[in-house]
Specification:
about 140 residues, 5 helices, mainly alpha
Length: about 140
């Protein structure tokens, strides 16, 4: 792949093999792994509940944060504890989980600060215009 790549050309996944990473090979953030260990421990200790079916216990025992089923189990558990079960809640929980997995690097913090200063300057700009407008109306 050259330096000047046509952005409008159709490309195959073969050209971008480093972008598509299988879920089993993903490096998850340390806080997410810690929550997964706590969840796995709570599942192991709560496995003796009599109101659960054998299928539920077997599914929870096979929990792994690196599978689609594990992600689905985490989202279902979060939805059950929050009490809100809408499509928006489920999508936002999936996006929040992805952002937690990515983490905040140096670039993200710089972008966050830069955007914050931009929003602050925008707010002060409109505030200054409002003050100038009131002063112009008084004269």
């Amino acid at each position: 792949m050259g330096f000047f790549t046509n952005p409008f050309a159709k490309n195959d996944n073969v050209n971008y093999d480093h972008v598509l990473v299988p879920l089993t090979e993903v490096n998850r953030h340390a806080s997410v792994l810690q929550k997964a260990e706590i969840r796995r421990f709570s599942i192991a200790t709560a496995g003796s509940d009599k109101d659960k079916s054998a299928e539920d216990v077997a599914e929870e025992a096979a929990y792994s944060p690196y599978t689609i089923e594990g992600l689905r189990f985490e989202i279902e558990e979060d939805v059950a504890t929050s009490g809100h079960d809408t499509v928006y809640d489920r999508k936002s929980k999936i996006i929040n989980r992805a952002i937690q997995d990515i983490g905040m690097g140096r670039y993200n913090w710089k972008l966050f600060i830069l955007c914050g200063f931009g929003w602050m300057a925008d707010k002060y700009g409109t505030h200054d215009l409002k003050l100038l407008y009131t002063l112009a109306n008084q004269t």
